């Protein structure tokens, strides 16, 4: 092979190329972004619209439906969903894979802009966003000391602006403080006296608080700009605003309303370890490095400490970069351990430090070269890409082992160093390239599948491919060059290691005897293998299935749901009880952070006063005896007896956007019917073993006062329906008239009724409504008030009502639980026009398994195609493919022994096995053919080729298997995602290697007999 000869002939050139690649790799490594998982880019767009003060029904009818209608015709739209809550609408659009989301977002924006004109007054401007499941806060910082309002001001004026200037920081949110607001408390009697209405005041405040340019005049040689300053400079300016009635009466605002500069509660209350705090949530930019951004924020906080008031304390509540760093470090240690194990195997077999060094160099060179390819393809350093390196650590030396072992063989035959390097490497280079290609091609289908399976495992596949390509290049260039320089004399048996040589001689003898036995009893061998493969299938139901293994991040979420309508003060009182229970675990809980009335750190929740969300950070795993899952169970038991609330404890989602483990989506035409069905479904699901906490999206409707305006009576007083509702909304919810600037702050000026006039139902019933003539009438005169249970959230899918029932799966694998739930649902009688679908992680798992099944079939075809090209024969590749069925035995036994369910990583492991296990069979069949070409008969060729190739087969298998052992054991944080993959490959490859050595020779003889019969038949015909 010319490349081999050139490498041996030009050692300096090879060394310089390697040094250049290493240098480029180190530079690339420093530039790689670090994150926990690969960036997940799903073709999903979101339209978010606020409608302050509106009930869910009103939001759905007036906002969600018009937006849905406007975007429903966009090409490539696959799923259209909406979520209508009190005061907000969320419309989610999922497009077909392959859609250019950037251009699609522009089209969505255009459609939404067209629909904005029909949205109701008071609705905010719709925001069109790209859905990013990983866009969660990377860090939470708690501020303590002083009062909440002072902490809010410190945060807004000093801390947030400084942090948002740090590179990588996208935005900083504030929770738990008090917000400054100027309230104009109108007196309706005074308004009536002066013939004024609320809208007149709103319009006057808006137009009075403006500055404008009025051209320019010349002064000498200069132009002076004319500017009219009309913005409010003080509260007095607001009070002195002149309001003019339709009759021409003029009155100052302060005469008909009280203007107060006040502090109002934000939508949430925050507590850290039970103490009131203001909490800052740090969001990073999409392309920013999580670890570097977190480090910069920490440094910025330290820099700020000197400028903050002494009584203000800062503490990091949650820092996701810490888990990322420990996870990456764990994977690095797994790589090092795997490398050490592989090198020890080489040393054991080769009995030479020099020979081991020659092969061992291929590992760091391949890894560092991989960083260069990762940089140019835009990949990030995360637990999956680094896990790919850890998985490939043993495979990186396979090609080099085969090449070096053949070089050593020539050297022991008396060839010179240079000739042995040239002959040994050139002879097997084509086979090595073909063998490596079979491993590489299995990853191609993974890259081209759709959905989350591709998003997660394409980076892993690419990294392994990069590493194998680099190691292949090393094996045909650097290995022969170093061998020609370092293998100065033939390798001799070392007395110190003679025990291993004697052991290998016994293994060879036993293997030769086993070959004679299986060749004599060919049918029995095939039958036993077939029975073992079929029998292993009996273990499949005992293994179970799951989507993606959960990582022990040491982070727990707790959702506290109070009865709908509970005040924020009552919810806070209950969280005090929860805090007392949590204090019992102070030796394990590092930080507990609760947001009352908000969505919490994860943004999950309805943001209402009856909801609280806890984020609990545990101490490091090495310092605690219980896992996060065990702590979840213990905390759930501890808080389950707290009366007056529904409290759910769960592990924090890793940010993959996979949703609830099990979700049943009910579709139909009427919410009332769907609500009834949802109750039945939730009951049925809770009866299934392993399924718990099944709750409907319509559970416990929110109490509300419905105002039924009598339009005829209202018309008699000259009032329209819209005018009545507008006055009620302005009185009880207020209306932002303008903004008052105070330095760098912008403060809302809100027109609203005095607090004492908007506290009770009687206040609402006795509220005065102003007629066009200026007279006041009680609201009860023209409207009926009724207290009902209204929905919390209204869901729609594809412009049809939907209700979801979600549940947790505990103590049972997801696949089994899903099938049992599906069986129970089939027994229910759904009304005509109503149906259900399984969603959540169960649906994602089903879709991903379907995609990967196609990828597996295509991978097997590609492996066969590569071998057919190599052998220029259709028969020999077919023989080699018989090494695949035996992997089923290893996979099922391995997962059963380790107690791991069959998951997405395990499926990827099977696809990888399709390209790995055939390599041993390729080496064996290829050598049998070589010997037969040298006049060996078939029986002698098999008995000679098997023991002769046993050594390199054992070496490559052991280096691959032992290189993955650290991952299979699950050493370190974040190793859970690779553990099923490593276990699958280790057991599958080990069992397959054994059956390859005994089954492939038997199958070879069968197909050789068949080939001879066919050849003989055609010869007779000729």
UniProtKB/TrEMBL annotation:
The keyword Transmembrane helix appears for this protein: yes
One Pfam family it belongs to: ACR_tran
GO CC, alphabetical: plasma membrane
Signal peptide residue numbers: none
Record field: transmembrane: 12-29, 331-350, 357-377, 383-408, 428-448, 460-483, 525-544, 848-867, 874-900, 906-929, 950-969, 981-1007
Entry GO MF terms: xenobiotic transmembrane transporter activity
InterPro entries: AcrB_DN_DC_subdom, Acrflvin-R
UniProt keywords, alphabetically: Membrane, Transmembrane, Transmembrane helix
Protein name: Efflux RND transporter permease subunit
């Amino acid at each position: 092979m010319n490349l081999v000869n050139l490498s041996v002939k030009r050692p300096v050139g090879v060394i310089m190329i390697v040094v250049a690649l290493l240098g480029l790799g180190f530079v690339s490594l420093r530039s790689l972004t670090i994150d926990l998982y690969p960036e997940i880019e799903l073709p999903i767009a979101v339209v978010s619209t606020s409608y302050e003060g509106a009930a869910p029904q009103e939001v759905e009818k007036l906002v969600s439906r018009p937006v849905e209608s406007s975007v429903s015709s966009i090409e490539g739209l696959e799923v259209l969903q909406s979520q209508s809550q009190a005061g907000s609408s969320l419309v989610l659009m999922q497009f077909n894979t392959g859609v250019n989301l950037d251009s699609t977002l522009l089209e969505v924006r255009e459609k939404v802009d067209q629909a904005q004109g029909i949205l109701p007054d008071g609705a905010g401007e719709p925001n069109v966003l790209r859905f990013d499941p990983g866009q969660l806060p990377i860090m939470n910082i708690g501020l303590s000391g002083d009062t909440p309002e002072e902490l809010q001001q410190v945060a807004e004026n000093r801390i947030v602006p400084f942090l948002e200037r740090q590179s990588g920081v996208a935005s900083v949110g504030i929770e738990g403080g008090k917000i400054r607001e100027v309230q104009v408390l109108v007196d309706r009697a005074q308004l009536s006296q002066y013939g004024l209405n609320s809208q007149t005041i709103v319009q006057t405040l808006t137009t009075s608080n403006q500055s404008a340019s009025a051209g320019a005049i010349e002064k000498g040689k200069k132009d002076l700009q004319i500017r009219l300053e009309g913005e409010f400079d003080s509260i007095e300016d607001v009070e002195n605003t002149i309001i003019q009635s339709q009759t021409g009466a003029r009155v100052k605002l302060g005469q008909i309303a009280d203007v107060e500069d006040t502090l109002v509660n934000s939508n949430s209350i925050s507590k850290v370890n039970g103490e009131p705090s203001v909490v800052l949530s740090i969001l990073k930019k999409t392309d920013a490095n999580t670890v570097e951004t977190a480090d910069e924020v920490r440094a910025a906080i330290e820099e700020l400490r000197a400028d903050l008031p002494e009584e203000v304390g800062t503490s990091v509540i949650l820092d996701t970069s810490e888990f990322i760093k420990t996870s990456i470090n764990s994977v690095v240690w797994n790589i090092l351990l795997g490398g050490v194990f592989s090198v020890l195997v080489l040393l054991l077999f080769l009995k030479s430090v020099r020979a081991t060094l020659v092969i061992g160099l291929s590992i760091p060179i391949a890894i560092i070269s991989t960083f260069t390819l990762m940089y140019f393809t835009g990949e990030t350093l995360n637990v999956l890409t680094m896990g790919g390196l850890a998985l490939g650590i043993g495979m990186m030396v396979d090609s080099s082992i085969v090449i070096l072992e053949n070089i050593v063989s020539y050297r022991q035959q008396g060839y010179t160093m240079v000739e042995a390097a040239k002959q040994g490497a050139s002879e097997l280079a084509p086979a090595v390239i073909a063998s490596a290609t079979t491993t590489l091609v299995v990853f191609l289908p993974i890259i081209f599948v759709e959905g989350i399976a591709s998003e997660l495992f394409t980076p892993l596949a690419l990294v392994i491919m990069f590493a194998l390509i680099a190691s292949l290049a090393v094996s045909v260039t650097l290995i022969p060059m170093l061998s020609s320089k370092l293998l100065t004399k033939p390798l001799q048996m070392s007395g110190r290691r003679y025990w291993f040589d004697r052991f290998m001689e016994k293994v060879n003898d036993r293997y030769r005897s086993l070959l004679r036995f299986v060749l004599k009893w060919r049918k029995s061998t095939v039958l036993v293998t077939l029975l073992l493969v079929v029998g292993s299938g009996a273990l499949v139901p005992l293994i179970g299935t799951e989507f993606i293994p959960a990582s022990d991040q040491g982070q727990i979420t707790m959702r506290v749901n109070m009865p709908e309508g509970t005040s924020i003060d009552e919810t806070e009182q209950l969280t005090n009880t929860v805090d007392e229970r949590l204090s019992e675990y102070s030796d394990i809980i590092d930080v507990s952070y609760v947001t009352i009335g908000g969505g919490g750190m994860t943004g999950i929740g309805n943001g209402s006063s009856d909801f609280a969300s806890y984020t609990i950070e545990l101490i490091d795993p090495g310092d605690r005896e219980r896992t996060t899952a065990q702590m979840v169970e213990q905390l759930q038991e501890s808080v389950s007896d707290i009366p007056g609330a529904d409290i759910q404890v769960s592990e924090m989602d890793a940010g993959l956007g996979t949703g609830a483990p099990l979700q049943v989506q009910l579709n139909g035409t009427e919410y009332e019917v769907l609500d009834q069905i949802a109750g039945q479904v939730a009951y049925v699901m809770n009866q299934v073993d392993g399924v718990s906490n099944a709750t409907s999206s319509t559970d416990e409707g929110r109490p509300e006062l419905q105002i039924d305006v009598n339009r005829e009576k209202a018309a008699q007083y000259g009032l329209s329906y819209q005018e009545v509702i507008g006055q009620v909304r302005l009185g009880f919810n207020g209306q932002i008239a303008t903004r008052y600037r105070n330095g760098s702050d912008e403060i809302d000026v809100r027109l609203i009724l005095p607090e004492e006039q908007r506290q009770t139902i009687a206040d609402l019933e006795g509220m005065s409504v102003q007629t066009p003539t200026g007279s006041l009438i009680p609201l009860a005169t023209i409207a009926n008030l009724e207290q009902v249970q209204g929905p919390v959230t209204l869901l729609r899918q594809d412009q049809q009502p939907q209700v979801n029932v979600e549940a947790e799966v505990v103590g049972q694998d997801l696949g089994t639980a899903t099938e049992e739930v599906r069986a129970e649902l089939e027994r229910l009688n759904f009304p005509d026009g109503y149906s259900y679908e399984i969603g959540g992680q169960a649906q994602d798992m089903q879709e991903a398994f379907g995609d990967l099944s196609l990828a597996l079939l295509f991978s097997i075809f590609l492996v066969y195609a590569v071998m057919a090209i190599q052998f220029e024969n259709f028969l020999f590749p077919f023989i080699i493919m018989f090494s695949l069925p035996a992997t089923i035995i290893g996979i099922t036994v391995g997962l059963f022994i380790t107690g791991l369910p069959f998951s997405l990583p395990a499926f990827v492991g099977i696809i990888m096995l399709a390209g790995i296990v055939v390599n041993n069979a390729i080496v064996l069949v290829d050598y049998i053919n070589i010997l037969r070409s040298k006049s060996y008969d078939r029986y002698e060729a098999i008995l000679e080729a098997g023991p002769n190739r046993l050594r390199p087969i054992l070496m490559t298998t052991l280096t691959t298997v032992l290189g993955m052992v650290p991952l299979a054991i699950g050493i370190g944080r974040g190793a859970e995602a690779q553990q099923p993959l490593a276990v699958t490959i280790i057991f599958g490859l080990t069992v397959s290697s054994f059956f390859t050595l005994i089954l492939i020779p038997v199958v070879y003889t069968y197909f050789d007999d068949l080939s001879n019969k066919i050849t003989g038949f055609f010869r007779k015909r000729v």
